Amino acid sequence: MSVRVGHTAEKPAFPILAHELLQDDQTRRNVRHATDVIRNKRALRVAEMPDWQDLRTTAHAIKTHTLLHLPHYLEEFERNCIRAGGQVHWARDADEANTIAIRLIRHAAERLAVEHPEVIKVKTMTSDEIGMNRALEQQGITPWETDLADMIVQMGKDEPSHIVVPALHKNRHQVRELFLQNMGLTELGTEAEDLTGAARHYLRKKFLEVGIGISGANFAIAETGSVCVVESEGNGRMCVTMPKTLITLIGIEKVIPKFDDLEVFLQLLPRSATGERMNPYNSIWTGVTPADGPQEFHVILLDNGRTRMMANVRERETLNCIRCGACLNQCPVYRETGGHAYGSIYSGPIGAILSPQLNGMKYSRSLPYASSLCGACYEVCPVKINIPETLIHLRGKIVAQDQNTLSGKLSQESMGMKMAAHLFEHPKQYEAAQRLARTGQGLFEKDGKLVNLPGMAAGWTQYRDLRALPKQSFREWWKRSHTDRGDGSSGVGDE
Amino acid sequence: MRIHLFIACYNDTLFPRTGMAVVNLLERLGHEVVFPTNQTCCGQMHYNTGYHAEALPIVRKLLHEFLDAETIVVPSASCVAMMRDHYELMAHDANDLHMMGDVKSFLPRVFEFSELLTDKLGITDVGAYFPHRVTYHPSCHSLRLLNVGDRPIRLLQAVEGLEYTQMEGSDQCCGFGGTFAVKNAEVSSAMLADKIGCVKKTNAEFVAALDNSCLMQIDGGLHREMGSQDRIRPVHLAEILNSTRENPLTAEALAWEGATA
Amino acid sequence: MSNDARFTVLDTIRRQLAADPDVETLIDDSPEEAYARIPRNYQRTSKLNREETLELFYDRLRDYDSELVFTDEAGIAKAVAHAMREANETLLLVPAGVPQEWLPQNDVEVRRDFDLPLQPLEEPRVVLTPCTVAIAMSGTIILEHSDEQGRRAATLLPDHHICVLWRDQVVETIAEALQRITHRTSPITTIAGPSATSDIEMTRIRGVHGPRRLTAIIL
Questions:
Q1: Last residue of some domain: B120, B141, B176?
Q2: Which of A46, A105, A402, A473 makes a 20 to 30 Å CA pair with A328?
């Protein structure tokens, strides 16, 4: 099986990417502005909802339940989708999904008698995950992204930097440049209205002419075999309605049991993602409807590493994610670096747990450590994924993996940790080590602070000062000041 | 009351003043403090960094040292969070029923320092005197895992002469995050810069917290920037509450240079 | 090939779940029974009375810059004609099943969507339809696409949507609204304000694709 998660196999570790991005003031300003805006809007909309916590609890319960009975619900979805005239395909990994898509596109293009196949796409991170655009282009198929931000990213030959606002790293002047170059325009205003107007005009032509559409899905409803796409711009409606053939790529974790469950998710998702009571458009369709929309409809159900995550409650819970991006907006780490630092299509707190797991812990291994475990993400996650606990769980897996290699076992960190553990288990040696550190620090002490420390401690002193060890430890003070009754309890005596 | 103290390894070694303040305060309030000398660490550093196997014996040892303690106080919210969030999980994952029993008996007896005062001892006014302008940084563990709420603020506001001022962006992480501070030192210090900005804006003389880890991070950044200049001083809540008219806490006592304790 | 994939994916899930020692305690009954036990303590019925519900709905529509016209069934055609005049339009698209009585007799060219090909379908800039239900809390209108409410493209391509709504079609919550959707396998579109994007410097711009104007004729 060849699972692929975007470009994670090729990207450097988080600290390296973060280093570059921390120097990029423009991106940092954009990220800060965008996350502040959405975070504040979200807070307002959530404050209106006295039953917000109840909604989160139910959403978590629905997802947990569905995952525990996933084969049942996938089969039910498949049955009902086929009954309504849809066709359902299964893909174990990225390559398989792309192969299926290419085959379906080629057939559709033949029927359309189109020489050079083109497809219009509505935002789907899943297609970025499997590298679909590159795979299509390699086969002579041209994909057109139609979400404004994805279009900007595509034109800029760039990478998305946020789940919900993927082009937040670009300002409007940069966008204007891209539009001038790519839309064949000679002039264009600089305001956001001008740019959006240009996109509306440019894309309408595509919507009406390109006969093949590709979408993802926010929800796949087992009870009815329906698919639901949640959006703001209207390009989703265009892409799932206008073409003759529609291919929808759906991660297997997107299935929900019943139509009525939408009442929970359609309250949580818009408020969490964009701080709206309801997003402008939701499209729900089932199979094929005569004289309305695509007459050929295909669903590709995608695994690509998700089944790896089904054997443990912590890992399964990661699959609750409904891709709202609220965790990104809340995260103090993301706020400093933006999404590109994570080297994955899935960035921020959810990316830190999803990306390594999809990859079978082979790539994105630095991501579980790209967190101070502050827990702000968990507080806002609409489906209550305990991200901090999952990060710790994944750190455990990474350490266990490393301990199986010589370089891992002998790393500075590993040796240090083992030494510390030994001391913690042997109080007398621990106390001796405290005394030794105090004596030994003389070499590094200057005006009450420690300088030029070796090894990992250098990471601290590069940016902050470190106070010299106090002249006595607490336990030394205790022994001196409290009469020792053998059980350590206090008696007469003073400092 | 007979109160056992778990000092926390980093307080023991780096911030003994906090432990001294806890002991002095509780004794002044008429309680007996016990310090089991074989204690070392709660296991958080190992567990959170992923060294789960190494953390297990450390935790078992702690449980053993406090088997007979009726009431345990811990002046470190992150240690208490470690205990409440992970000790049962560790016993479960180790398939250790005996340990699970010990953990279940242990947890109800543990109190973070501010919890001990307000919940167990039922007091907010401890007779402290500290005529200074003070702000408060809620550590992430105390805020989100222990849900201490406004306990520390109520305790501060009951201090004679103390002027409390709220910090903007107080719920944002200071960037310490345990080993995160060194493994992702650069991002950690970027987060710290933001926090220091908020701290300075309060124009307070002191910033209090329940965790010396956060305070170490904030103090480390402030000292790098301003050295021994007159500046805001990070200090553990216990040390403020231990300040009295007879023995007031001073900024000089918190200075790095020429430190005596 | 897809059959192999189907088998492998489903089989892997089953084996993975079986490998989790905690799962046994979690799935000891049928999916239906387990589903029924999911806690649902969120609001599912109205807290507001009818008048409050309607006022809330009107408020939300006004927030979206929608026009509200209040009339009775006999006044629909006149209201439509008026809206067309205001918009400076003369060509009106209507789904096949919209009642004749709704349509202006003069000054407006009505184009019925009897399976129109793309070019004539795409021309009109105004479309007139009823809807199934509306949600007051979020100012959402829900269409079940059909002969009466039109195929999806009919309310997507034009720039101005005139929607006829009865007061008793307005409910407070989405939970109540979903109960009114009876043709669950028909295509369904929910509309809450015009399309929007904040993708450029987080400036919210209205009207990217789809109708930029909504006139609600409320009976």
A1: B120
A2: A402
pTM of the model: 0.95
Q: Which of B125, B183, B185 shows the shortest CA–CA distance to B156?
A: B125
Residue A244 forms part of a structural domain = yes
Q: Tell if the CB–CB gap between A425 and B57 is shorter than 8 Å.
A: yes
User: B109 and A341 in contact (C-beta within 8 Å)?
Assistant: no
CATH number at residue A110: 3.40.50.10420
* Interface contact flag, A463 B192, Cβ < 8 Å: yes
Distance from CA of C96 to the nearest CA of A (A): 12
Query: What CATH number is given to the structural domain containing B198?
Result: 3.40.50
B104 domain-assigned: yes
Domains of chain C: 2-36 (no CATH), 50-218 (3.40.50.10420)
Half-sphere exposure of A177 (CA within 13 A, CB side): 7
Contact A214, A249 (CB under 8 A): yes
Residues contacting residue C46 through CB under 8 Å, at least 6 positions apart: C53, C171, C172, C173, C176
Q: What is the pLDDT along chain A (495 residues), one digit of tens a residue?
A: 789 999 999 999 999 999 999 999 988 998 898 899 999 999 999 999 999 999 999 999 999 999 999 999 999 999 999 999 999 999 999 999 999 999 999 999 999 998 899 999 998 999 999 999 999 999 999 999 999 888 888 888 887 777 677 777 778 888 898 999 999 888 899 888 888 889 898 999 999 999 999 999 999 999 999 999 999 999 999 999 999 999 999 999 999 999 999 999 999 999 999 999 999 999 999 999 999 999 999 999 999 999 999 999 999 999 999 999 999 999 999 999 999 999 999 999 999 999 999 999 999 999 999 999 999 999 999 999 999 999 999 999 999 999 999 999 999 999 999 999 999 999 999 999 999 999 888 888 888 888 878 887 888 999 999 999 999 999 999 999 996 555 555 544 443
Asked if C13 and A70 come within 8 Å (Cβ–Cβ), the reply is yes
CA A132 – CA A302 distance, rounded (Å): 13
Neighbouring chains to C with at least 3 Cβ pairs closer than 8 Å: A
| Tokens coding A259 | 């139509």
**Three-state secondary structure call for residue A292:** strand
